[in-house]
Specification:
The protein has 3 helices and 9 strands, in the order E-H-E-H-E-E-E-H-E-E-E-E. With about 150 residues, the protein is of the alpha+beta class. Strands 5, 6, 7, 8 and 9 form a 5-stranded mixed beta sheet that branches. Helix 1 packs antiparallel against helix 3. It is globular. The protein starts with 5 loop residues before the first strand and ends in a 9-residue tail after the last strand.
Length: about 150
């Protein structure tokens, strides 16, 4: 591989989702572009697209993809875990508490009660972003570090 990992998320409201991932999660907009039908169509993304590349501070990129020629179907609830396909995006933080505090105001909703749980000695939190995509936060602070395990 020659570059950090990228993931694409198809969205209904590009401005809302860009604000969410930048303000609440800490990403930063790197560039935006129109992608012609000749690329978006064969990729199965409905033709012409607008794409915003959001840099993740630790490396990698979240691409927000807005199809221009085909409406994006409404998504009422987060996709259930255990089904085939992408389940959630994971973001790692030195201290996730400020992010957790900002998520509700940014339009996200917690997916567990309590909002922060412990798993394998780590603090984690699952949220649905404003369009229902599931986001996992993992805190770098551990109770009992266990080499070889990841959340």
């Amino acid at each position: 591989m020659t570059r950090p990992f990228e993931v694409g998320v198809v969205v209904r409201d590009l401005a809302l989702m860009e604000r969410f991932y930048c303000a609440a999660i800490g990403c930063h907009a790197e560039r935006r572009s129109r992608v012609p039908d000749s690329i978006g169509g064969p990729a199965g993304l409905g033709g012409e697209l607008v794409v915003v590349w959001l840099g993740v501070p630790s490396g990698g990129c979240v691409k927000l993809i807005l199809p221009r020629s085909a409406p994006v179907a409404a998504h009422a609830a987060p996709s259930p875990a255990g089904r085939p396909g992408l389940s959630y995006l994971t973001f790692h933080f030195d201290d996730m508490d400020p992010v957790v505090a900002a998520l509700k105001a940014a339009g996200a909703r917690p997916l567990s009660d309590p909002v922060v749980v412990r798993a394998r000695g780590r603090r984690i939190s699952f949220w649905a972003d404003p369009e229902g995509n599931v986001v996992e936060l993992v805190d770098a602070r551990t109770d009992n570090p266990q080499p070889g395990h990841s959340n």
